[in-house]
């Protein structure tokens, strides 16, 4: 059963960064882009544990979902220091709502990126998503949040390797990812 994603809305009032459109973000000069990215990363990497901080992170993730559908922005974001922070949030966030939205951002970035750099830790994201799906295999709601991101990353790697003549060692996909994916398809 495929769960339809609800439209993403973010609250401008509690977002502590400038809310540029995707078109504006793609045209930012390097200095402004780096400043924007630094602010996003520091907000996501915040270790505050109160409900306001969780709400603020969720709101930021909603905003990232809206701009990640732009090809140039997605390519810049996936190749930046944001991607490792998203992986870290997926691993460490206590709140499953945050983990689900992080997975959605990762999936959207993978879907809309036009070029994948060799230094992007895609394999690490695939390993983590595989582990989370395996650990929560009986929770169908969590699987519905995590599987699309895993699928998009696998497709991105396959399409990037198809563009190039030989496969890249940095994008090794563990066989466990295919096993978990096939088990999910078989058992629902």
UniProtKB/TrEMBL annotation:
<dbReference type="InterPro" id="IPR045906">
    <property type="entry name" value="ULK4"/>
</dbReference>
<keyword id="KW-0808">Transferase</keyword>
<keyword id="KW-0418">Kinase</keyword>
<dbReference type="InterPro" id="IPR016024">
    <property type="entry name" value="ARM-type_fold"/>
</dbReference>
<protein>
    <submittedName>
        <fullName>ULK4 kinase</fullName>
    </submittedName>
</protein>
<dbReference type="InterPro" id="IPR011989">
    <property type="entry name" value="ARM-like"/>
</dbReference>
<dbReference type="GO" id="GO:0016301">
    <property type="term" value="F:kinase activity"/>
</dbReference>
